[in-house]
Amino acid sequence: MTDQPQQHQQEQGQEERIGVYVCHCGTNIAGVIDVGSVRDFAGEGLKGRGVVLSRDYTFMCSTTGQELIQKDIAEHGLTRVVVAACSPHLHEGTFRTACDRAGLNPYLCELASIREHVAWVHTDHDAATTKAKAIVSGAIERARHSVPLEAIHVPVDAATLVVGGGIAGLQAALEIADAGHEVYLVEREPSVGGHMAQFDKTFPTLDCAACILTPKMAAAGSHPHLHLHTWSEVEKVEGFVGNFTVTVRRKPRYVLEDVCTGCGICIEKCPVVVVDDAYEAGIGYRKAIYMPFPQAVPKLPVLDPDTCTYYLKGKGSCRACEKFCPTEPNSIDFNQTEQRINLRVGNIVLATGFDLFDARRIPQYGYGRLPNVFTNLELERMCNASGPTGGAITLRDGRTAPKSVGIIHCVGSRDRNYNNYCSAICCMQSLKLAHLVRERTGAEVHNFYIDLRTAFKDYDEFYQRVLDEGVHFVRGKVAEVSEVPRGPDEAEGKLYVQVEDTLIGMQRRIPVDMVVLSAGIEPRHDAKQVGQTFGIACSANGWFIEKHAKLDPISTMTEGVFLAGCAQGPKDIPASVSQGAAAAARVLMRIRQGELALEPVRASIDAERCSGCRICNALCPFNAISYDAAGGVSAINSALCQGCGTCVAACPAGAIAGSGFSNEQVLAQIEGLLLTNLEPAEALT
Amino acid sequence: MANDFEPVIIGFTCNWCSYRAADVAGTTRLKYAPNVRLIRLMCSGRIDPTFVLKALADGADGVLITGCHPGDCHYLEQNYKALRRHRLLQRTLAQLGVEPERVHLTWASAAEGAIFAATIDRFVERVRALGPLRWPARPKPLPVAVAPELAEEALP
Asked: What is the pLDDT of residues B70-86, one digit of tens each?
C-alpha cells in the first residue's frame, strides 16, 4: 500500500500552467459545439486562471493528438492538462497515460465530457457551446486543485471463484484451472452442466450435446485445481478485487459426499416418484432421492426433503435409501444441515445463465391448457435418447407420433408485451427442432417466424438444408393456437394455428397435431439480487451490465468481477464458450500480473484536526475507520477504504481528505461550472 | 420574463450509475435540456451539503442529486446516507428561505439513460416554474416547516 499524500489545504494554482485541448471528435463534437469559441474562451477568458495555451484538434485521442499534449508539456512546462472530449469512462486512461509519458503525474490530467454530456444530447448550438464552456471552466478550476497521486498497488489472490457451472462457467473454470490456479466453481443445481446438459443436439452441426459437454464436466469433476461446490449458492461477497472473501452456502444433500460412491442403489430403491420440473422440464419423473441425469458431475445423489417420506411422514418411516446403501459408513445422513464456507479469491467470473421464458404467460398460445402444445425444452427432452420417451417424439399421450407439427418462433421475444429483445438462439433452435422432427417422425413441419436470423458460421447453410428437407416456412406472427374447429372443413382433434401469412397477404389456419413454442430466454429471476451480492447492476432488460457494450463485454464496473455466457445477454453456445474463455484470459492476466494498480481515490484523516467525535466511524460500510482510544482520534485503513467519500462529506471538522475528489476540487469545480471565476466583463450571457 | 428564464442547474452524479446513465443518454443520442451541468463524484454519499449550498449561493437555480437505486450502491449503502442528508438539507433550505424543491434527489442506474434524460427535462421545467433563485439576495424566508408531501414528492 502506498500512503497517500495529504491534500494541500492552502490555495493552490496561482502559478499553475494549464493546457486546454478541445477535441472535435470529427464532427461528433464540432458538429454541434463551436469548438473554436470554446478554445478561445479557455485561452483568452481564463488566462487569469492559469491557462497558458488552448488548442483544438480533430481527434485528441489519436497518436498525433496525444503527442501534441506530450510536446506541450515538455515545451511549455504545463503543470495541468484539461482535455475537453468524451466521457472519462472512455479516454481518461488514454490521456492520463499520455501525460505520464511526458513526465506529468497522470492525476493532474482532467477530462471534460463535452461529447456524451453536451454534443450528443443537445441540438441548440449556442446553448451547447455555452454549456461546453461551463464544463471546461469547471474542469480547469478542478484541475487547479488536483494533486499528484500514485496508484495503489494491491496483491491478487491467485484463486478464482466461478459462479455457474453451465458451459460458459465450465469453460472459464477449466481454462483457469488448466493454467495451474485454484478455481472454486459454485453451482446452484446438484450437477454442473447447465442448460446444455438438457439438450439433445446442438446447431448447426447436430453434435450430440452430451457428447461434447460431458468430457468437460468430467474434467471439471476430476481436475486437481478445480473445486466443485454444487447444490450451493454464494451468499455474501466482501472485500475487493484481488482479495474477495466469499461466503458459500452449501445446501444439505443428505448424502455424505466423501463416502458415497454414486452407485445409485438408493435411487433404485426409493419408492417415491415425482415429476421432475427441473431437468426433465416437467415431462419426466425422478425419485425423492435422485441424480438429475446419468452423467451428473459430481456423481452424487441428492435427497429432496419436500417429497421424501422420511421427512413427510416422520422419523422411522421408509429409510429405504439408508437401508440399502452399501457403503460403510452409510452415505445417507438424514440430519445433514446446510453449511457455510468462506473462500478467499482474487477474481470472480459470473456465469449464472438464463431462465426460459414461461410460455404460460401467452395464454392465446395455449401452453398448459392445450395438451399438445409443448415448449422447445420439452421437445429437447423428448428428442434425447436418455429423456423420458427414450428419444421418441410423441404427443402428450406418450404414444402417438405427430403427423404434423407447428413450431412458433419468437415466443416471448421481440414482443413489446413481454421482451423487446431478440433471444438470439430461437431461430436456429427452431430450425434444429424442425430438422429433428422431420428426421424422427417424417411429420410435416411448419415454422412460423417473424424474421429468420441465421447469422454466424454455417448457420444459414443449416437453414438452406432444413428448407431442402421440406420444412414449410410461414412468415407471420401467430395470433392464436386453438383446438376449436371453425366451420365444416375443420376436423376435431387438431390444433389450428391462426396466422397472417405476410408473404401472401392473407390469414391462414393451419391444422397440426403438435405445436412447439420456441420460448425465448430471460435473465435469471433473481439476477438483480445476485447482481447486488456481487456489486454489479442489471440493464433495463435484466442482463448484467458489461463495462463497455462493444469493447469490453467481459468486465463489469466492479473491478475483479467478470461476465460469461447468457448472464450478460442472450447468446449461443459458441459465443458462451468464447466469453468464458475470454473471462478466463482476463483472470489469468490479473493473476500473472500478481498485483493490481487501483485508482488512488482514498480517504485519510488529519490527526491534528480530528476531534475524535467518531461520527465517521459508523458511516463506513467497509469498517475501514477505527478509533484510536489512546490518541483520541479516528484513523482510516487505506487497505480497506474504497474511496466513496461519505466520511469526507460527514466530518464536521473537515479533518478527512478525499484524494481525487477533495472538497477543494469539488467546490472549485462548482465555481467553474457557474462561471464565477470569470471577470464580469467576460461573463457569458 | 419567466418565459425567457433559462435556469442553471448543477447536477451531482455517482461515477457508477448516474454518470454512466448520462453517458448512455449521450451514446444513444437522446435529447434533453442543456441547463444541467454535471459533477462526477465517486458516490452520492460524497455529497457534502456544503456543495449544494455553495452551488445555490454561487448562482445555480437548482441542484440535482443522483445516485444508485436503493440496494444497488457500489459502496453497499452510501446512497441511503445521501438520502438522509437530502431530507435534512431540504429542511435547512426552507429555513433559509429557499424552496426545497430546488434540490431534487433521484435514482438512476447505469442503464437508465432515458430515465435520466427525462428526469432532467422535468426538473428543468420545475425550476423554470419556480423562477430565478437570486440567493442570497432573497427578501423573505419561507415558513420553516417543510410540508411532508413536499419532502416526499417525487417528480411526476
From this structure: 888 888 889 999 999 99
